[in-house]
Amino acid sequence: MVPGDSIIEAAIGDAQHGLRLDRALADLLPDLSRERLKTLIGEGQVHGPQAVKISASTKVVAGQFFTITLPPPTPLDTVAQAIPLVIVHEDADLIVVDKPAGLVVHPAAGNLDGTLVNALLHHCAGRLSGIGGVARPGIVHRIDKDTSGLLVVAKTDRAHEGLARQFKDHSIDRLYAAIVYGVPTPGSGTVDSWIGRSDADRKKMAVHREGRGKHAVTHYRTIMRLRGATMVECRLETGRTHQVRVHMAHLGHPLIGDPVYGRERKGFKSILETLGFKRQALHAKTLGFIHPVTDKPLLFQSVLPADMQELLSELHV
């Protein structure tokens, strides 16, 4: 045992009798994901009765006793930065942030710092239990740099696993407010398509034939008719890269200010320049999910940010 390690004890009960060791321990130790336990077993950090061969697939018996040596989380090789955040909700397992436009979610080439992850490492210092053995915030979904709004981040293995499952099952409730060029006809509907990398530009996404890329479904409805534009609400059934932006452009009504999927329409240039509006008019306004630890339904709302409110007022009929 290395200084800093902690020892966890687990007694196999009747409910775990006959299960695989990794699954049985996951039942008994809800703060550790099954994948994390598999890793610990493989690293020789799990010990049991002398006659029992320790492997993830070992079948356990009621009454057996196991000890797990849990090393302290490895620090993430990313600097913590004191970047202001709007925290909508926080508990021991997760945190919901209202992200401003312009803030990148995760460090990557070209944005190695100044991201949401850098900010969360500072905000959550000492309160990240170690996802996959690393002290890091668990990013289960992302919002584009120049999109504002709600984002949930896991602080523990268990929360990360539970949230990821809900996103995979498409059971997360996500609503976006968007201001688009023109007037969608019909005023409400569903875009059901496949989205993948564009053949013309690999940095862009595009709608493709069935089976190419990933299935993507967006339900939209008109909220307000504007001067040469429309405010729409988009409910995401799936969560693909640039989904709302690609789907609205596919309908012929790209988001105002979108430099990738929409060209500036006549009469809008001076308005956008006067307002200093330099991003796609898209805001993640509603986020709902089941708390992955307490099973409590959670629903969060975010008001339209000031820049989109100004644009809305300017275009109001």
Query: What is the H-and-E element order?
Result: EHHEEEEEHEEEHEEEEEHHEEH
Largest sheet: 11 strands, mixed
Mean pLDDT rating? 90
Count the DSSP helices: 7
- First-last Cα distance: 70 Å
Task: Give the tags.
single chain; alpha+beta; 3-stranded antiparallel sheet; 317 residues; 11-stranded mixed sheet; 16 strands; elongated
Summarize the structure.
Helices cover 20% and strands 30% of the residues. The protein has 317 residues and is of the alpha+beta class.
Can you describe what's shown?
The chain is built from seven helices and 16 strands. The chain has helices spanning 21-28, 34-42, 116-123, 157-168, 243-250, 269-275, 306-315, and strands spanning 6-11, 46-47, 65-70, 74-75, 87-90, 94-99, 134-135, 138-139, 148-154, 173-181, 188-197, 205-208, 214-225, 229-236, 282-290, 297-301. The strands form three sheets. Strands 5, 6, 8, 9, 10, 11, 12, 13, 14, 15 and 16 form an eleven-stranded mixed sheet that branches. A hairpin with a 3-residue loop joins strand 13 and strand 14. Helix 1 (21-28) crosses helix 2 (34-42). The model has no long low-confidence stretch (mean pLDDT 90).
Map the helices and strands.
Layout: E1 6-11, H1 21-28, H2 34-42, E2 46-47, E3 65-70, E4 74-75, E5 87-90, E6 94-99, H3 116-123, E7 134-135, E8 138-139, E9 148-154, H4 157-168, E10 173-181, E11 188-197, E12 205-208, E13 214-225, E14 229-236, H5 243-250, H6 269-275, E15 282-290, E16 297-301, H7 306-315
